[in-house]
Every structure is written in structure tokens, then in C-alpha cells.
Amino acid sequence: xxxxxxxxxxxxxxxxxxxxxxxxxxxxxxxxxxxxxxxxxxxxxxxxxxxxxxxxxxxxxxxxxxxxxxxxxxxxxxxxxxxxxxxxxxxxxxxxxxxxxxxxxxxxxxxxxxxxxxxxxxxxxxxxxxxxxxxxxxxxxxxxxxxxxxxxxxxxxxxxxxxxxxxxxxxxxxxxxxxxxxxxxxxxxxxxxxxx
Length: 196
Known about the structure:
Blueprint: E1 6-10, H1 20-34, E2 38-41, H2 47-58, E3 63-68, E4 83-87, H3 90-99, E5 104-106, H4 111-125, E6 133-136, H5 143-154, H6 160-163, E7 166-169, H7 172-180
Parallel strand pairs: 1-2, 1-5, 2-3, 3-4, 5-6, 6-7
EC number: 3.2.2.n1
Pfam families: Lysine_decarbox
Keywords: Cytokinin biosynthesis, Hydrolase
């Protein structure tokens, strides 16, 4: 049984087109706080990111933001977080978020959200960490991506055990329950960290 004390959430610095995305962020915030799970996220105070952080703080939870110096003004760093880490680069930001987190969830977001999710899922596939990764598929937002990933599996560009590592749910409570019971697949590491 995995011990989940902190979750990194990848999500948009835009609010998106529909209010359902902010509603989903608020629901996830409630689930995290009810389980005493610290939110780790990209540090911005705008868009879905800001909604998520604001809601966790409003409910009495802890929020750790990690933002690169170059984006701290552009993305408007959140002024009231429990902790804010300012990094020198995007690479350092992603590494720090990974180090601070026991699992990873993607809410709706843009190409930055997808890039972060795919990188952390790749790290899991390569055996660099054994933490759960998942999507909150809000109102079908990720349906097309899920279909494409099924196609990637069918075309044998990803193995079944690695495909299954990315958990998909529509309800944050169900996803977090799965995280608590997560068992990473037993697989031979392809390469060591010192080989990349």
C-alpha cells in the first residue's frame, strides 16, 4: 500500500472554455484536503492552477508551488502559498516537483500539462520512480488522448504494463483510492539514471 502525503497536479494556467474545469479543480482540492494530502503544483495564481491552489488553501490545506524565475511574473506567481520554490529553469522546476511528490495527476490543461504528464509517466516506465500517475478525465476532456494511447498500445509502441501505469478516472476520490493501493509493475529497468 502506497503512502501518499503529497500529490503533484499538472493543469492549465488558463481557465479553459468551460466552468466544468474549475469545478473539477475544486473537487480535487476537496479530496486532497480531506485526506491531508499536500498539493504540489506549478506555482501560478491564475487559471485552473490558481483555482486549485486557492481552493486547497481556503479549505485549510497546504500548497507548495514550484515556478521558474522566468515565469514567476508571466504566470503571476501565487502570493499566498504555504511554500513557493523559485527555480532557475523549467527542467529544475519539473525535477523539484517530482522530488516533492508521492504521485502525479493531470487535470485539463494545454501542451505544458501534457509535456509534464508524459515526462513523469516516461520516468515511471523507465523505473526512475515508482509513484502513481493518472488523468482526471473531466467531462471527456482527455477522451481523444485516451483513444490515441490505446492506438499506441495496439500498434505495440508501448507495453501493456506501461500503458496500465497511467490511471484514468473521472472522480478524484476513485483516483486517489487507486493511488493508495498502487503497486508498480515489476519490470527490468531499461537504463540507469547515470546513463542518460
